[in-house]
């Protein structure tokens, strides 16, 4: 009988969450689980203070200048849709990359199919990195923004966004990053990196719950609301509140999720995100080195893991990713993610489309024993294939 699930799908959602975070979420919510900013009674005021304090913590965490420009959303996809649909106008041009998740590709394609925008996607090299100069060369006179992932959710490569930010700043074009794979794992500083905005989610390396994320903007970004409703501010007017953050937040906020983000930040700062990342990378090297000994396992991405997050995508020759994932789950109790990983253009460029690959993604609670058990399971699968 299997002892426990070996969970290696942290790039989708980290699991388990720190027990201290979950316990404090419930404890605080039991004390003030009311609508923040919707009443003058003490509990509502305390809830609003919790929201305000969390905005301040996030602004500091991401090196953002203004806590009022910390916008709470459902997740990174929600934040990216808010950004792209709120900023782009007819005739605008966007530069992005072929590394992107569908959370960027689909909004861009939607706006393109509507005849509103044009966009170009910069390729990545054999090691999984985008050349900043390629992005610079793609900028036109009508380029409204550049948007790119901070790290690929398929290859794990950390992109040179600081250099891209510098080049974009020199051209007067704002750079926004999708930090779904890096927020809470890699230090991000909006000011020193010349970033106009960051989209993040709470349920990955931030170690928070699902259903909460955010969009953090600098003061120069002009963005229109995409949905309208109650904000608790200036309720007599039928015009949606123009001031930030209420401008981009309609309806009652996810207070439980915001509490979760606040508590997860405390956990991350106590543990140290650099220490968490370093430990994950030590384990990734162990996994990568083990995979490299099997001739039937194809590893995608660079051999040098110096600019990387803790994930790796592979295929076993002659086997579909779905079959490998099913065997790992059913026979070995190992949870991985197989398929296209919502990043179809990456797999198209790798030649792994339409079936994709098998992704192993590590988290702060992954152990050496988990890695060794995974290598043993993949050795069995690889040997079985070798013998066929």
Task: Summarize the SSE layout with pairings.
Elements (H helix, E strand, L loop, with lengths): L5 E2 L11 H14 L9 H20 L8 E4 L2 H12 L4 E6 L4 H12 L3 E6 L9 H7 L4 E7 L11 H11 L3 E4 L18 E5 L11 E5 L37 H17 L1 H19 L5 E4 L10 E6 L4 H12 L1 E2 L1 E3 L4 H7 L6 E5 L6 H20 L1
Parallel strand pairs: 1-11, 3-4, 3-5, 5-6, 6-7
Antiparallel strand pairs: 2-8, 7-8, 9-10, 10-13, 12-13
Helix pairs in contact: 1-7, 2-7, 3-4, 5-6, 8-11, 9-11
Describe this structure in words.
The protein has 388 residues and is of the alpha/beta class. It has two domains: 127 residues, Aspartate Aminotransferase, domain 1, CATH 3.90.1150.10; 253 residues, Type I PLP-dependent aspartate aminotransferase-like (Major domain) (Aspartate Aminotransferase, domain 2, 3-Layer(aba) Sandwich). The protein is 39% helix and 15% strand. It contains eleven helices and 13 strands. Strands 2-8-7-6-5-3-4 form a seven-stranded mixed β-sheet, sandwiched between helices. A four-stranded antiparallel β-sheet has the order 9-10-13-12, covered by helices on one side. A two-stranded parallel sheet has the order 1-11. α2 crosses α7, α8 runs parallel beside α11 and α9 crosses α11. The longest helix is centred in the N-terminal third of the chain and has 20 residues. The chain is globular. The model has no long low-confidence stretch (mean pLDDT 95).
């Amino acid at each position: 009988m299997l002892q426990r699930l070996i969970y290696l799908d942290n790039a989708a959602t980290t699991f388990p969450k720190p027990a201290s975070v979950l316990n404090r979420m419930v404890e605080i919510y039991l004390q003030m689980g009311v609508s923040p900013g919707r009443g003058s009674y003490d509990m509502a005021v305390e809830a609003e203070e919790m929201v305000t304090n969390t905005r301040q913590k996030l602004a500091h965490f991401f090196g953002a200048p203004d806590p009022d420009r910390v916008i709470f959303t459902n997740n990174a996809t929600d934040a990216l849709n808010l950004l792209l649909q709120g900023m782009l106008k007819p005739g605008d041009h966007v530069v992005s990359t072929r590394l992107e998740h569908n959370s960027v590709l689909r909004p861009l394609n939607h706006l393109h199919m509507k005849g509103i925008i044009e966009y170009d996607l910069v390729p990545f090299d054999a090691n999984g990195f985008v050349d900043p100069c390629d992005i610079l060369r793609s900028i036109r006179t009508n380029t409204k923004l550049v948007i790119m992932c901070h790290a690929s959710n398929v290859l794990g490569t950390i992109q040179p966004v600081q250099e891209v930010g510098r080049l974009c700043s020199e051209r007067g074009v704002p750079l926004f990053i999708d930090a779904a794979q890096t927020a809470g794992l890699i230090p991000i500083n909006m000011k020193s990196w010349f970033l106009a905005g960051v989209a993040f989610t709470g349920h990955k390396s931030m170690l928070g719950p699902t259903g909460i994320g955010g969009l953090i903007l600098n003061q120069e970004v002009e963005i229109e609301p995409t949905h309208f409703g109650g904000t608790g501010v200036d309720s007599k007017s039928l015009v949606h509140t123009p001031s930030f953050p209420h401008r981009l937040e309609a309806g009652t906020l996810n207070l439980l999720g915001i509490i979760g983000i606040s508590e997860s930040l405390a956990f991350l700062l106590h543990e140290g995100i650099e220490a968490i990342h370093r430990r994950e990378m030590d384990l990734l090297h162990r996994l990568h080195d083990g995979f490299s000994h099997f001739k039937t396992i194809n590893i995608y991405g660079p051999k040098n893991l110096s600019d990387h997050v803790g994930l790796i995508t592979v295929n076993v020759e002659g086997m579909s990713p779905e079959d490998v994932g099913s065997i790992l789950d059913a026979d070995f109790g190992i949870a991985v993610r197989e398929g296209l990983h919502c990043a179809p253009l990456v797999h198209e460029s790798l030649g792994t489309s339409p079936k994709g690959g098998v992704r192993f993604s590590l988290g702060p609670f992954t152990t050496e024993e988990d890695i060794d058990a995974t290598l043993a399971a993949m050795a069995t699968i690889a040997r079985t294939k070798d013998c066929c």
